Amino acid sequence: MLTAEHLEVRRLALDLARGEVRPHVEEWDRERRIPQGVFDAMAELGFLGMRVPEAHGGLGFDLPTYLMALEALAWGDASLGLGLAVHNGPVTRALDAYGSDAQKEAWLPRLASGDLLGAFAVAEGAAGGDLDSLAVRAVPAGDGAGWVLSGEKAWVTNGDRCGLLLVLARTGDEGDGLSAFLVPRDAPGVQVMGRERTMGFSAAEIVTIRFDQVALSPEALLGEEGDGHNVAADAASVGRLGVAAVALGIAQAAYEHALRYAGEREQFGRPLHDFGAIQEKLAGMAIRIAQARSLILHVAAAAEAEAPAEGIHPAGLRAQVAMAKVTASEAASWVADEAVQIYGGYGYMRDYPVERLMRDAKGTEIHEGSSELLRMWIALDAVGDSGLS
Predict the structure, then answer these.
(1) For residue 68, which of 43, 51, 54 has the smallest C-alpha distance?
(2) In the predicted structure, residue 141 carries a pLDDT above the cut 60
């Protein structure tokens, strides 16, 4: 059930998106960058600490409140929403769930204040998101002096602007373990190798990062050695819900643009929205958005109710998170495509917003796990629950 607090936070985020974000999105998309001042404004209002506990300087939002705010900000600009989803989702959640008191005190206040932006480095060019095929390796430095990190991570959102990287790396004598590490962006040997040119999310920083014999202190290890799969599962759950909220913001924006255009554009002496074919499209768009929003908030509430302190992936919740992400991302692509159709030839031009939204929507079907991968998890959980496995 939505509360007055939920609605007030959403209103504040929408006001910020409408006044400080929407007027600039075309420029950001064209120039492939978001000015630092935008992140500073987000930090000033607390939106970089949405999931950081109040004890560490954050707002301490529960998942439904956070996702509603994120949807509103992504309605303003999807690239900004994606950067905020990574920072507020996997990074701050992993620190809060698995960090020691010293790690939390060292990093969470700085992340909440905007002094640092967070990035999550898990995927690799050859492995994609297959955790068992990751090649980045952390080996003990000897005499308990820490670790040495080597290898390359691909598609790291916020990778150049960030101040802290959450990195998954192979550990153990045979490299058969997986562990999580907190790596300062300015550590010697951390190199940004290049910025990707993506179909959508053009203003988001998505880069390749190389770790060239990066020396890490013992305090860089997040949780216990070998905890990497648990950290990754937890981070992926929050990350996927974040991308689902971003997708919902894209869908809502595309729907509103199409609805407005259908009332302004006339054909054969009548507004477009007077034609049954256009009405059917608008109705379908509204239905899919409402379905996706309801599922996201339902799963978020379930995660808050069921989650143990160390993670939000109890049995069965992984499939629910996957369903929410698949539903929202595919709704975003469908709604954006319908918006382009309603705009007609203008929808195919870069001078109109629905073209950009269609490009951004496609990215949500890939970020934080493709729809095909997530359907596999949904099916595996269903088979397991049925007793047929």
Answers:
(1) 51
(2) yes
CATH of 228-386, one of 3.40.50.2300, 3.40.50.880, 1.20.140.10, 3.40.250.10: 1.20.140.10
Helix or strand (DSSP H, E) at 178: strand 177-184
Q: Is 368 a catalytic residue?
A: yes
Contact (Cβ atoms closer than 8 angstroms) between residue 262 and residue 273: yes
Query: What pLDDT is recorded for position 8?
Result: 87
Judge whether residue 10 has pLDDT over 50.
Answer: yes
The DSSP call for residue 223 is: S
Secondary structure of residue 255 in the 3-state scheme: helix
Calculate the average pLDDT of the chain.
Answer: 91
Q: Which positions ≥6 away from 333 have C-beta within 8 Å?
A: 358, 361, 362, 364, 365
Please report, for the chain, the start and end positions of each structural domain, with discontinuous segments joined by +. Answer: 4-117, 119-222, 228-386
| Residue of 330, 338, 368, 372 marked catalytic | 368
Between 384 and 132, whose confidence is greater?
132
pLDDT tens figures, 214-260: 999 999 999 999 999 999 988 889 999 999 999 999 999 999 999 99
For residue 192, what are the contacts with CB-CB under 8 A and spacing of at least 6? 159, 160, 207, 208, 209
